[in-house]
Amino acid sequence: MSTMMKPLSPETILFDEVLPGGGRWSKIIRKGQVLRILNTEATSGLSALFYNVHERTERYNAADTVKVQYNAYLKQGKALYSDMGRILMSIITDSCETHDTVCGYTMAADVEKLCGLGNYQNKRNCYYKNDFDNFLVEVGKYGMGRRDIMPCLNLFADAKIGERGELIFREDTVPAGSYIELRAEMDVLIILSNTVHILSSKDTYDVKPVSLTVYQGDAVAEDDICVIDSERSERAFVNTRNYMKQFTQGGGNV
Amino acid sequence: MSEMITVDLTLNEPIYDETIPAGEPWYHVVKAGEVLRIVDLEGCQAVDTLFYNANDVTERYSAPQTIVRQKNIFVETGTELVSNLGNTMMKVISDTCGRHDTLGGACSAESNTVRYALDKLDMHSCRDNYLLALGQMGMDKRDLVSNINFFMNVPVEADGTLAIIDGISTPGSTIELIALMDTLVLISNCPQLNNPCNAFNPTPVRLSIYKPF
Fold first, then answer.
1. Which residue of B has its CA nearest to A51?
2. Beta-bridge partners for A55
3. What is residue B4's predicted lDDT score, i.e. its pLDDT?
4. B110, B114, B140: which to substitute to probe chain A, counting the most A Cβ within 10 Å?
5. Which residue range forms the structural domain that includes residue B118?
6. Is the distance from CB of A156 to CB of A98 less than 8 angstroms?
7. How far is the CA of A102 from the CAs of A224, B64, B66, B102, B162, in angstroms?
8. How confident is the model at residue B2 (pLDDT cuts 50, 70, 90)?
9. How far apart are CA B35 and CA B9, in angstroms?
10. Contact A236/B114, CB-based, under 8 Å?
11. B166 vs A89, which has greater pLDDT?
């Protein structure tokens, strides 16, 4: 686990943005680029969906991600798998190793039950957003809809599984300043929704912002920790690189 | 867990009763109030199952919402299967196995290449069964989400380690689900030969539907 955040050369930075509490965000990130997510104020549960830009029916698959890696939890060296035996993004750095692959998104009724009615009429632009509606709006911008919203990943959320299969959710265990870096191994459409976690017990809608930086990463080394994580990750990289060859014919960089 | 629903099925004749060979897809609408019974005839056979609202298939089973509703990853008697819109689709009214998986999803040709070896691409898989059945119904890959694996044992250890180990399902293990909405049930009777989920010997299952009385 690395705790020091590497300083970035300004010329490598493509975007540097803040996603406010309640907000939704999407971006296409090309192979080799890195999304750094800095949890500046210790928010709990940033929900994320991932798609292959070129074939959006290929998408993040929570089941394959945990099954291929034989672990329900994610950390540095692990990867986000698609349903096609390929890696969408690798976790090249992770300061907190506390992410939730199981609990999914909130809906309007979940947020209202927890925090009360927070509609536009009474809250104006601080209205209480929820993940499902955020996802519908954001995937809608790419011509997608309800059928394209699959079980999501919740970053910075401390949801564990007990020995009898029970869910154990703990609030405020992810410190402010935690960060994770996801390197695109394919051209990826990322959708983010920054709302409360479905298992949160806080009755105020007080979601903190996160900082999002996209930068050009280094070439993937032969001994990259995500490549050599296991024989399975090595095969997944073979599959992924073979797939991406179609976009680099003629030497062009995609 | 909400109150138990008890249904005495011993008095009824099934309105549907078929035995499905290993490695086959199957789909059928179970109407609201009807009961689907799945019998693992020879034991240790994973039955990969998806659920859709038969009247609007964009509403479908959601593993996360099912898990969060009962705050537990295992399906057992009393488990409500929850849709992506938060509605209860079916409820488990009896179960003699006690262990069914919600995390592992379905096997696919492509994931087999990663999990086992690159040359496994030609082996039969649940995802191919699903794509065939969905294609026959005019649906497609966008309709595939995480499924339930009935009779499959995937415990999670303290460090998150996920094991696909020998099932605890014995010959004749039975689960019964009552439909709370008209539910399109899509099954792949798992053909996986690379791990113990089918005891390395995929076998038939019996599917019966009972009318409410």
1. B142
2. A52
3. 53
4. B114
5. 9-210
6. yes
7. 27, 6, 10, 9, 13
8. very low
9. 9
10. yes
11. A89
Q: Domain count for chain B, please give it.
A: 1
Cβ separation of B145 and A145 shorter than 8 Å?
A: no
In a domain, B1, yes or no: no
Chains A & B: contacts with CB separation below 8 Å: 133
Residue B2 lies in a domain: no
Q: Is B142 in contact with A148 (Cβ distance < 8 A)? A: yes
Residue B189 counted as domain residue: yes
B130 part of a folded domain: yes
Owner of token pair 């032969």: A222
The dihedral through the CA atoms of B115, B116, B118, B119 has a sign that is: negative
* pLDDT band at residue A251 using 50, 70 and 90 as cut-offs: very low
Q: What is the mean pLDDT of residues A35-64?
A: 97
pTM: 0.95
Amino acid at B94: S
Over range B85-104, report the average pLDDT. 96
Find the Cα–Cα–Cα–Cα dihedral B127, B130, B136, B137, rounded to 10°.
Answer: -130
Chain B closest-CA separation from residue A128 CA (Å): 18
Q: Is the pLDDT of residue A250 over 80?
A: no
C-alpha dihedral (A4, A18, A190, A185), degrees to nearest 10: -30
In the structure, what pLDDT confidence band is assigned to residue B11 with cuts at 50, 70 and 90? low
**Which residue in B115, B188, B156 sits closest to A102, CA to CA?**
B156
Residue A166 and residue B110: Cβ atoms within 8 Å?
Answer: no
At B138, phi and psi to the nearest 5?
80, 15
Q: Which residues face B28 on adjacent strands? A: B185
pLDDT for A145-194, tens place per residue? 999 999 999 999 999 999 999 999 999 999 999 999 999 999 999 999 99
What interface predicted TM-score (ipTM) does this complex get?
Answer: 0.94
For residues A77 and A192, give the distance between their C-alpha atoms in angstroms, rounded to a whole number.
22
Cβ neighbours of B138 (radius 10 Å): 8
Q: What is the number of alpha carbons within 13 Å of residue B149 lying toward its C-beta?
A: 29
Sign of the torsion angle spanned by Cα atoms A64, B156, A70, B106:
negative
Residue-wise pLDDT for A199-232, tens only, equals: 999 999 999 999 999 999 999 999 999 999 999 9
Q: Which chain A residues are within 8 Å of B58, Cβ to Cβ?
A: 145-147
